[in-house]
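Example 3.2
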Amino acid sequence: MARTGSMRRVTSADVARAVGLSRTTVGYVLNDVPHQKIPDATRKRVIEAAERLGYTPSAAARSLRSGRSDVVLCLMPDLPVGYTINILLEALSAALEVHGLTLVIHPRAQSHRPISDIWKAITPAAVLTLGEISEGEAAAMRAAGIELTSVIWGGGAAPRRQVLTISDERIGRMQAQHLAAQGHRRLGYAMPVDPRVAMFSRPRLDGVAMSCADLGLDPPAISYVAMTAESAAAAVRAWRTRPDPVTAVCAYNDETAIAIINAAQREGLTVPDDLSIIGVDDIPLAAVIHPGLTTVTLAPELPSVIADNIVAALAGEASDQQASSIVVQLVERGSVSAIG
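Structure, written as tokens:
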């Protein structure tokens, strides 16, 4: 642990005192400064003392020596962090670590603190935003020498420099197209009530609606579903008691889809024979419920694409990959069946 008894960080001066050498010599060893004629035995003494005392170099000192921080600051918007975001951040952290970069995550839920206060305090090499930021904020970061990469979930905005777009519209289209291919002509859409996820849910609904229009189907019958048994059951009843009953539902995500499966079964319906259901995300529970949940998910290379874009930007290059090129995958299980 890099602290003394008074909870002060162990410094190179502490190491120098422990081995009876000058701070300059110890600094050369600890910083691995090239072209310095320091005996191997001396280097060994310094390194052993540093390890014994718990010395770790400060990030600020490393930044001064290298001219660049090794931190990538991820600014999280105000949204619930579930399985999919957790997996994305874990994989992204690992992908950046390969390049010697450290991911630091700052959630901004209900925060009114200016973004500039955050990145100025951390002085990162790059900032990753999951969502839009203002042009003024982006310009201020770049003026300070900080690279900016934004991942935008949406329906198809034209990518700008270092802006990666992920089309939730495509996800909704794939859901509707798969159900229509199974013969379903009347679709429902299970919409979440949490306004924080509108950046995902609205484009997905738009994709479903556009596919319905392209295929000559009526617009999807929308029901708002809270994560309660009563809300899910009310949605199922609304879909099934229509003059033209819904036979298949596109759910905003897998959690919503699983709530609908449970509600349908409690209402005496059989999934998928009476009601087919398709989700989004492919969470672990999707594979173990009965019936298994058919779902749509982004291909697993997304974190590496984001990391490659950040690393390329830091090198002053353009990445060969864009998030908009990521393949959306269909995972077929038992919650969708064909009808005549």
